[in-house]
Amino acid sequence: MFRFAASRIAMAIPTLLIVAVSVFVLIRLIPGDPAQLLLGDLATPASLAELRARLGLDRSLPAQFGIWFGHVLQGDLGTSINSGQDVLSLVTDRFLISGRIVLVAVALAAMVAVPAGMIAAWKQNRAPDLLLVGTATLLVSIPTFWLGLLLLLLFGLKLGWLPVVGYVGIAEDWKNGLLYLVLPVLTLFLHEIGVLMRMARASTLEVLRLDYITHARAKGLSERAVLMRHAFKNAFGPTWTLIGLVLGNLLGGIAVVETVFTIPGLGRLLVDAIFARDYPVIQGCLLFVAVIYVVVNLVIDLCYPFFDPRVAVE
Fold first, then answer.
1. Cα–Cα distance for residue pair 267/252, rounded to 1 Å
2. Rounded to whole angstroms, how far apart are CA atoms 58 and 232?
3. Helices 279-303 and 2-28, axial angle in degrees (round to 10)
4. Rounded to two decimals, what is the model's pTM?
5. 278 and which of 52, 207, 273, 294 could share a cystine (Cβ 3.0–4.6 Å)?
6. Do 239 and 200 touch, CB atoms closer than 8 A?
7. C-alpha 152, offset from chain centre
8. What are phi and psi of 295, to 5 degrees?
């Protein structure tokens, strides 16, 4: 187990380094000059040169990367060009909002999708299976922004049950704060149910064809006992891996949902920073999401031996 954990952690370190280099290079490919954007059309060559020197944009790319990465290792992601705020505190504050939405949505989706996928596999090619697979396919096929707009139209405008746009912090008013999170969570919840349900169904079908399941049935165990005692643990392994991927993908792609519902989360911060050419904030957001993605999948890998002890031995 220790060797398995050490190998996974060792693999994560060069991955994070590659991510840092990729983020830095991709940011420099964005067209536009932050100094020109800040000073406006009336900027003089002298003022532009002075601002570029202050921001470190007049140095070579390797020198810029070395300075930036050195600060990153010290926990300093820089200062926002537009607002002057510390990027790390800005990113973490927004991440608390996005992370709350994503974690709740994925947890609820897993609680519903895994049992539903197992039932679909158990009732393969029968009415429950066809209904669940059809529902999962439909939910996966609907884009999240379109699903969010439909939910806004139904629950916000037609029924008037939930607020349409805006955001209230839970610390300020927890009742209203929860109401503002219902539709974003519901949007991601409905979309991810389809993804996780199909994986749970496929992995359960594979497990149900194994010899030890046939042996368990031959011993006279009920189908419920076969599913819960023997099939669930092995079938849940691939779904558990997918949950880690879903968490990372949602954190990276939540900007669409936050834009639809006007939620000031990490995705909205990234979109605003891109339009403003705020290099430090863009780099900070991308690097933070990438680190969270790598850490989440590292935790998923470290938990995998609990579902399949053979992994730790290998």
1. 7
2. 58
3. 160
4. 0.76
5. 273
6. yes
7. 22
8. -65, -45
Query: Are the C-beta atoms of 239 and 117 separated by less than 8 Å?
Result: yes
Per the CB < 8 A criterion, the answer to whether 297 and 242 are in contact is no
Tell me if 201 sits within 8 A of 121, measured CB to CB: yes
CA–CA distances in Å: residue 244 to residues 167, 294, 295: 27, 9, 10
Q: Which residue has the tokens 């003089």?
A: 44
Place of tokens 């939620």: 263
Other CB atoms within a 10 A radius of the CB of residue 200 amount to: 27
Q: Which two tokens stand for residue 149?
A: 């707009």
162, two tokens: 């939930």
The token duo for 307 is 């579902």
Per-position pLDDT tens, the chain of length 314: 567 667 777 777 787 788 888 877 777 776 666 666 666 666 777 777 777 777 667 777 788 788 778 888 888 887 787 777 888 888 888 888 888 888 888 888 888 888 888 888 878 888 888 898 888 888 888 887 788 888 888 887 788 777 777 777 777 777 777 887 888 888 888 888 888 888 888 888 777 777 767 767 777 766 666 766 666 667 777 777 777 777 777 776 677 788 788 888 888 888 888 877 777 888 888 888 888 888 877 777 777 666 555 454 44
Grouping H, G, I as helix, E, B as strand and the rest as coil, residue 172 is: coil
Q: What CA–CA distance (Å, rounded) separates 72 from 67?
A: 9
Cα 41–chain centre separation: 38
Q: Which is nearest to 195 in space by CA: 123, 121, 116?
A: 116
Rounded CA separation 146/139 (Å): 11
